């Protein structure tokens, strides 16, 4: 049995169904989009079995792309959850046959609420198509299942239709990257667009020493600070130099090396620092990468240290450069 060929045939069957669906899109698709755009309440998606699973995914996609939406199971609706439907909502119901028992039982009640009903079904003569204010044909020539029974092609097509609706709604609403990120603050995009230096910088127990501190004491401070670095300030508490473990290794090679010398003798003078704590963490990571440093000291307008941003903290927080 050639399993690769079977898999390829599945892809081909489903791809052909998607192309057929794309070609037959008509006014009903536009009507559905207009109904959703005019909805002042929520778009409620419902369906049973595989259609229900697809519907749950569709509702999640709508909700994360600017269309307030949630999934409602027909059985739960029959047992009290109809109360979740408001007078300003729209219902989007999915059923390949259009005759799913649990779904058809709630359709008369939906009409009683006098709210718009969008039906996705492959049966033009079904109960769902009859009750729907807008009906979109989701029929397929055949399922990818060799028995032509298990929902395969039909579920792929329905999910793609949901994506097409979500994308069309995003375009109509002018939904931008920043809007998407606001719905996904914990995701990569959200972190890139919203997490700032002030959210991740360390401000406590910083390894700060005076410019006249002997190297021996500086090494102790470096060890206790656990940053591989000590920050050096002048007599006015202004950030002036930085001694890294790399600087320390290079100092060991110098003929004038002495543990009694001031640490600033071997430090990097006038190192890179930043004072705008509102800078995005992703932009700060770019600075760190471009400067090839691990630590970015953060100062106020008077050059006094208020925190540090370590590359490890950025990486651990899932921050990526733009």
UniProtKB/TrEMBL annotation:
Site (Catalytically relevant): 50, 102, 143, 184
Start and end residues of each CBS domain: 201-259, 267-322
Gene3D superfamilies in alphabetical order: CBS-domain, Glucose-6-phosphate isomerase like protein, domain 1
Domain of life of the source: Bacteria
Keywords on record: CBS domain, Metal-binding, Repeat, Zinc
Keyword Repeat: yes
BP term (GO), one: carbohydrate derivative metabolic process
InterPro entries named among the record's database cross-references: CBS_dom (IPR000644), CBS_dom_sf (IPR046342), GutQ/KpsF_isomerases (IPR050986), KdsD/KpsF-type (IPR004800), SIS_dom (IPR001347), SIS_dom_sf (IPR046348), SIS_Kpsf (IPR035474)
GO molecular function: arabinose-5-phosphate isomerase activity; carbohydrate derivative binding; metal ion binding
PROSITE patterns named among the record's database cross-references: CBS, SIS
SIS domain sequence ranges: 32-175
Annotated residues for binding of Zn(2+): 73
Protein's UniProt keywords contain Transcription regulation: no
UniProt similarity note: Belongs to the SIS family. GutQ/KpsF subfamily.
Name by which UniProt lists this protein: Arabinose-5-phosphate isomerase
């Amino acid at each position: 049995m050639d399993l690769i060929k079977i898999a390829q045939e599945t892809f081909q069957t489903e791809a052909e169904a998607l192309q057929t669906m794309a070609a037959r899109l008509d006014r009903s698709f536009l009507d559905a989009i207009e109904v959703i755009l005019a909805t002042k309440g929520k778009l409620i998606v419902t369906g049973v079995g595989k259609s229900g699973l697809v519907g749950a995914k569709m509702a999640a996609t709508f909700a994360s792309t600017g269309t307030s939406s949630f999934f409602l199971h027909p059985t739960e609706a029959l047992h009290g959850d109809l109360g979740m439907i408001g007078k300003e909502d729209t219902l989007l119901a999915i059923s390949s046959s259009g005759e799913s028992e649990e779904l058809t039982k709630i359709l008369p009640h939906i009409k009683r609420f006098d709210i718009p009903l969008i039906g996705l079904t492959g049966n033009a003569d079904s109960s769902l198509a009859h009750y729907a204010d807008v009906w979109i044909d989701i029929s397929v020539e055949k399922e990818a299942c060799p028995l032509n029974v298990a929902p395969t092609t039909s579920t792929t097509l329905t999910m793609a239709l949901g994506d097409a609706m979500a994308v069309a709604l995003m375009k109509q609403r002018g939904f931008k990257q920043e809007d998407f990120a606001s719905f996904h603050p914990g995701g990569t995009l959200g972190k890139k667009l919203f997490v700032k230096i002030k959210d991740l910088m360390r401000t406590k127990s910083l390894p700060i020493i005076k410019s006249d501190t002997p190297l021996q004491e500086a090494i102790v401070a470096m060890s206790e600070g656990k940053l591989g670095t000590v920050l050096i300030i002048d007599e006015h508490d202004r950030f002036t130099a930085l001694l890294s473990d790399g600087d320390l290794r290079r100092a060991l090679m110098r003929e004038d090396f002495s543990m009694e010398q001031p640490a600033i003798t071997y430090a990097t003078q006038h190192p890179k620092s930043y004072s705008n704590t509102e800078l995005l963490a992703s932009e700060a990571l770019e600075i760190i990468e471009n400067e090839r440093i691990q630590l970015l000291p953060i100062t106020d307008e008077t050059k006094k240290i208020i925190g540090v941003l370590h590359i490890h903290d950025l990486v651990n927080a899932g921050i990526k450069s733009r």
